[in-house]
Amino acid sequence: MVMIKLNDSKKKERCFWTKDNPLMNKYHDTEWGVPLHDDRKLFEFIVLDTFQAGLSWFIVLKKRENFRNAFDNFDVDKITEYNETKIKELLNNAGIIRNKLKIEAMIHNAKAFKKIREEFGTFDKFIWKFVNQKTIVNYWRTNEEIPVNSKESDKMSKALKENGFRFVGTTICYAFMQAAGMINDHLVTCFRHQEILLLIP
Prior knowledge:
Blueprint: H1 22-30, H2 39-52, H3 57-62, H4 64-70, H5 76-79, H6 84-91, H7 100-120, H8 123-127, E1 136-137, H9 151-162, H10 170-179, E2 183-184, H11 191-197
Parallel strand pairs: 1-2
Helix pairs in contact: 2-7, 2-10, 9-10
């Protein structure tokens, strides 16, 4: 019997930046743009965006599990206790991005994160106020339309810096907002744009 392989005429159309890479596709299809309200995951995204600065997101995704293992599954309370011995250990860990400034920033940010959490009850309540607690929905049709910052990311960056955060420029904040679903920046041609709309209360 001759088996005929049918062409998949209904192949899902995604945002351009995945470049149809399996790892990037999975992240795009299951996480990017999903409204996120879990403090541990929010801190994980802050850490990953910190380490992504100046590098590609693909590099960070490839090392994500290594980051989780090295950083106690992004446990803020544990990270605030990291000392010089731990920093040296991390700098010898070939599985992560070994950048001392970024490692020190992560520890510093964990402490700032805890202070905000203590003041607001959750970091989630603090960070989502920059979009009035509701996802901003954009309707971009081309890659060129998508900005790298916004008035909301400007305000977030300023507030985070005032609260002691490092590596939180407006561009990094905008990328964080996209990832955490504070902004729906999937192109309208992407199948996830509509799916994300259904997740917004």
